[in-house]
Write a structure and sequence with these properties.
Rossmann fold; glycosyltransferase activity; Glyco_trans_1; Glycosyltransferase_grp1; single chain; Glycosyl transferase group 1; alpha/beta; 2 domains; transferase
């Protein structure tokens, strides 16, 4: 159950690449996976991937949401139908996986305990919260931490004073082959001039790509040679391009658009620094990937990022602090020995996390908390009664 938009194209189901890689892991754990999510017919974006497993059944849910009054009214009108469709999907399931935060995630947290006692929620946002977050996000976090949610909640980071069902966890979108590729890239990292800076992520307001562009302008004024590649697409694409033109940075700031995961590795290979200083992050996949490839990463001082980049593995700056980001990038550019040390520490840390280790960790987690044998062909049956051929779905 997720708010991620899916695309039906040429008899295949596509969605955002990192999400698809994780869904494939769930498909490896269960005989049948039902996905309740918004769906469109047509060509997926450039960063989309096809779900490669055959045991997937997509149940389309009307897309809703937005900040405008019209969007809110549409959401209200569609709510009864959405709830009915979710209930129909939940009625046919033996286990439920809800992905939060999101509009459908909130409904899933409310409805799922009425249909199953095998529940797991993934909270992909910043579990500690942040001042600007929406009330619906706070409500989801409250419900997940309460007795209403009788299942597991996986969160990024180890936060104090949490109930026992809230469990620190991790994610990954890299296979063992990707980790090997990352190791090769990391082994080639050496300080170079100009400093090659990379941004990978959605071009939305909270990702603060505009702050990076302004920091690059400041570096140019200080005669620090830099090149910046921006990988991704989103609602701020045109605004960011206009900002680059206005600051006369077209020769050193380049937009790659939305590209597939394999192409992103080409940018990791030719870049030295990744900047992703967002307003909020859970487990930022781009930072984890870049660290594995030996890039020096700069993130914001929020969420799990300070832990990921702690102990000399990277740098953190306050979100939307242009001067702090400028000074940090200048320090990196003028400290080649430190670049080498940070690159090594980052790679050693992040290369431990792969899709294979994620699958094994999920199997162990579900076996322990659901009292099931996840190595059995029908894993949602209790360990003491696992000789049944009943098919199982998880949404």
């Amino acid at each position: 159950m997720t708010h991620v938009t899916h695309y039906r194209h040429r008899d295949k189901i596509f969605a955002y690449g990192p999400y698809v890689r994780e869904i494939n892991v769930w498909c490896d754990l269960f005989p049948e996976v039902m996905i309740a999510a918004p769906c469109k017919d047509g060509l997926p974006p450039g960063d989309g991937l096809a779900i490669s497993r055959a045991n997937v059944n997509l149940r389309p849910i009307p897309a809703s949401g937005g900040d405008s009054l019209a969007a809110k009214l549409q959401q209200l009108v569609l709510l009864p139908r959405i709830v009915w469709l979710l209930c129909l999907a939940l009625y046919r399931t033996s286990a439920v996986h809800v992905r939060c935060p999101g509009n459908l995630g909130l409904l899933g947290v409310i409805l799922a305990p009425c249909f199953s006692n095998k529940l797991i929620a993934k909270y992909a946002g910043q579990w500690s919260g942040f001042p600007e977050e929406a009330w619906s996000v706070r409500l989801q976090r409250y419900l997940l931490g309460s007795r209403w949610w009788r299942g597991i909640v996986t969160v990024y980071g180890n936060w104090p004073n949490q109930p026992p069902h809230v469990i620190p966890f991790f994610t990954s979108v890299m296979t063992a082959a990707h980790i090997r590729q990352a190791k090769e890239i990391a082994s080639r990292k050496v300080p170079q001039s100009p400093l090659s800076i990379l941004f990978v992520g959605r071009l939305s307001k909270n990702k603060n790509a505009d702050v990076l562009i302004k920091a690059v302008a400041n570096l140019a004024q200080r005669d620090v040679a830099v090149r910046c590649d921006i990988v991704g697409d989103g609602e701020q694409n045109e605004q960011l391009r206009e900002l680059v033109a206005r600051l006369d940075l077209k020769t050193c700031v380049h937009f790659a658009g939305a590209i597939n995961f394999e192409q992103v590795f080409d940018f990791y290979d030719r870049s030295q620094v990744l900047v992703l200083a967002s307003d909020t992050e859970g487990w930022p996949k781009a930072i984890a990937e870049a660290m594995a490839c030996g890039l020096v990463c700069v993130g914001s001082d929020r969420g799990l990022v300070p832990w990921m980049l702690g102990e000399g593995r990277g740098f953190v700056v306050p979100a939307r602090d242009i001067d702090s980001l400028t000074n940090t990038l200048e320090r990196i550019a003028t400290s080649p020995d430190q670049q080498v040390d940070v690159s090594r520490r980052a790679a050693e840390f992040s290369q431990r996390y792969s899709l294979e280790t994620l699958r094994d960790a999920l199997r162990e987690l579900l076996s322990e908390h659901w009292d099931v044998d996840m190595n059995n062909s029908n894993p949602t049956k209790p360990k003491r009664d696992c000789n049944t051929n009943r098919r199982v779905t998880i949404s």
